[in-house]
Amino acid sequence: MMHAEKWLENMVIKGTTRAALQHFSKQIDWPPHVLMNYPDLSANLVDAARQYFVWSKGTGGIADFLPRCNEGEIPTRINETATLLKDTCVPPPPQAGNAAKLVEHAHPEANVDAPY
Question: Can you tell me the distance from the alpha carbon of 112 to that of 30, in angstroms, rounded to the nearest whole number?
Answer without folding.
Answer: 44
